[in-house]
Amino acid sequence: MEKSKKLKIILGLFYLILVSSFLIFIFSNFSFNEVTSYKFIQLNRDYFFSLKEANLFFISMAFLILTIIWIFLLGFGSPVSLVAGFIFGKWLGVLLVALGLATGATLLYIFGNYFLKDMIKEKFLHKYKNLESKFKKNEFIFFLLYRSVAGIPFQIANLLPVLFNVSIRNYFLGTFLGIMPSLFILVSLGSGIESVIKNNDIAPSFSELLFSPGIYMPILGFIILILLTIIVKNFFYKN
Predict the structure, then answer these.
(1) Which of 75, 108, 80, 74 is nearest to 94 (CA)?
(2) Domain enclosing residue 144, as ranges
(3) Nearest alpha carbon to residue 112 among 124, 96, 130, 100
(4) Distance CA 29, CA 194 (A)
(5) What is the pLDDT at residue 173?
(6) pTM to 2 decimals?
């Protein structure tokens, strides 16, 4: 148990150092006003697109590797989904981010199985004990539902299956397929934001931004997904 706590602290510190280093790099080269300005975003959009067109394979692999590392270090899935849509568009973006999130989460699951199992059981077994019988009935189907149903923070959801000894194959495939609907909505939103920036030399008003098809359709899809999630969640997590 003591070893698990030390590993958790080391992992958390490494994550903080990584994020802090990125922020220090950004704000040592640019002021806050520059970073938050529409022109800054527009110029960097052009930079990333020229970089992507020059070497799509390299940029895609770099993004994939960084996403895997980010998720392994307990990062959120939402930011990388929006960035993927912004840079790569809907289809390639959703494929890259789904692969990155599924791979990073699987590596974290393997890590948790070896080093954090006792700690996870101590903290979560009493709360999610009722899911054990569901997983035993049909591991892949219920894990797919588990990944599709929101309600548990993504970082915790990556580690909870340690309680149920989910196979690595079912974990990866269930994660890849289960997160696809929500990822597609977030990636589409990122792609919609890119499209708005591409087609507007000056910053659009909030109403113009909100009622752009590339913006309001993913938001509408997200609302529908939340409503469906609430319905499924009441069934999935009931005792």
Answers:
(1) 80
(2) 2-236
(3) 124
(4) 23
(5) 92
(6) 0.76
At 229 the pLDDT is 65
Written as one string, the DSSP assignment of 113-163 is HHHSHHHHHHHHHHHHTTHHHHHHH-HHHHHHHHHHS--S-HHHHHHGGGG
Nearest to 94 by CA among 216, 168, 220, 179: 179
* Tokens, residue 172: 């990866």
Residues 118 and 224: beta-carbon distance below 8 Å: no
What is the tens place of the pLDDT at every residue in 153-178?
Answer: 777 888 888 888 889 999 999 999 88
> Total domain count for the chain?
1
Residue 203 DSSP one-character state: P
Tokens describing residue 181: 């609907």
- Contacts within 8 Å (CB) and 24+ apart, 205-209: none
Most confident by average pLDDT, 101-110, 126-135, 139-148, 228-237 = 101-110
CB atoms within 10 A of CB 8: 14
Per-residue pLDDT at 212 exceeds 80: no
Residue type at 114?
Answer: Y
